[in-house]
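To fix ideas, we reproduce below a protein record of this kind.
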Amino acid sequence: MTVPGPSPAETVPRAEMQRGAPGRGFALPRILRRSATTLGTLLVTLFGLLLVTFLIARVVPIDPVLAIVGDRATQAQYEAARVALGLDRPLWEQFATYAGDVLTGDFGRSTLTSRPVLQDVAGAFPATLELATLATLLGVLVGIPAGVICATHQGRWPDQLIRVVGLLGYSVPVFWLGLVALLVFYGQLGWTAGPGRLDTAFELSYEFDVTPYTGSILLDSALSGAWDVFGNALSHLVLPACVLGYFSLAYIARMTRSFMLEQLGQEYVTAARVKGVSEARVVWVHALGNAAVPLITVVALSYATLLEGSVLTETIFAWPGIGLYVTNALFAGDFNAVLGGTFVVGVAFILLNFLSDLLYRIVDPRAR
C-alpha cells in the first residue's frame, strides 16, 4: 500500500511562510503600505502647492495693505493695517500662521466682498465645475470618435481635415474665439443667450423656485422641477462650453489618434483580422478598448486643465466662476481671495490626477 506523502503546502517550512511567502495574509499590509505612500505623496504635494502660492502672492508687485487702506491713508494708518495683517512678521512666521489657518478651513476674509473667502469660493466653484464638466463631455464625445477616424484613415482627407480643425483649436486665442462667438451666435444670429448664467427675468425664479442642492443651476433646477430656469441656464451655458470644449476636443482627438495608431499596429489586431473579425469590432472594441487605458489620464488632465484654465472664458462671458473671482480679486489686491481660489483649484487638480491613477489601475490589471 502506498502511503500518501505530505502536501506541497506541508513541505514548506513554517519559518519560510512567516518570512513573507506570497498569500492572502500579506495582501492587507501591501495595500496599507501603498495607501500610506499615496497619502504621504498627496500631503507633500498639497504642502508644496500651499507654499508656492503663498510665496508667489508675496512677490507680486501689488501692496495688499494699500488695497485696504487706500491711497489717502496716513503713514500711521498704513502701519497699523500692516501690523493687523501680520505683514510685519518674518516670512516663515507668516507662512506658518497661514498654513495653520488653512488646516482649519480658514482662508481669511475677502476685502473685495467682505465675506469669508471659503464662502466665496464655495459659491463660485460650482459654476466653474458646471462649465468645465460640460466642456469636457463635449471634448470626449466628439474628440475620441474624431481621433479614431483619424487613425483609421491615416493620411487621407478625413485625417487631414480633423487634424487641421484640431490645430486651429490650439492656435486660436480663446479670448478672440469667445468674442467672435458672442458677436456671431448671440449678437447677430440670436441662437444663444448672452453673458452670465441666467437672464435677469429668471434670477428671481431661480432664487424662489430652485433649491440650491449643489450650486449647479442645471442640476438644481432639474431636481426642483423648474424647467424654465433649466432651459434658460442651458442657453447661457452652451456657448462658453462649446468655446472651452473646442480646446479639449483638439487635445483629446490628437491623443486618441496617437494611441489608436499604436494599437492598430499591434499583432493582436492583425490576428483578429485574420480570424475574420469585422473591422468595426477590431477598431471600436479591441483597439479602442486598449487605448482607453491611457485615455483615462488624458481626459482627467484635460478636465483639470479646464478647471484651472477657464479664466479668460469666464471673463469674456461674465461667468461667475472661480476664474473670474480670482481675476477680480487679483486686480483689487485681495490676496486672501487669490490664495484661497488658487489653492482650491490646485487641490481639485491634484485629486483628479489621483483619481485618474486609481482608474488606470482598475482598468489595466498590469498597473496593479
About this structure: The CA atoms of residues 57 and 335 lie 7 Å apart. The chain has a mean pLDDT of 81. The chain has 17 helices and no strands.
